[in-house]
Amino acid sequence: MLVVVSDLHFEEETSDVIPGNGDHPPVAFSRNLPGRAHRTFIAHIASEAQRNGAKRLDLAFAGDIFDIHRTSLWVVDNETRARPYVNSSQVEKDVEERVLMILQAIQDEPGVVNSLEAFQMLGKGRYFDRGEREFPVPVSLHYLPGNHDRLSNATGRIRLEVRRALGIQSSEKPFPHVLTFPREGAIVRHGHEYDRHNFSIDYSSKDVIPLHIPESEYEAPPFGDFATVDIASQIPQLFRQNHTDERIVSDPVLRKVYLRLLEFDDLRPQMAMLNFLLHMPKARVNQSDVWSAIEPILERLLEELHDDPFLQMWLEKMDKKWQLDAVDVIQTALALKSWRLVGIPLGLAQFISKTAIDSLSESPGAKELAAREEAIRSGEYRFLIAGHTHSPATELIASDGHGERYYVDTGTWRNRIPATPDFKAFGRLKTLTYVIVYGPDEDLGGNRERGKLASIDFWSGITQRWHSGEA
Question: Full-prediction pTM beyond 0.90?
Answer without folding.
Answer: yes
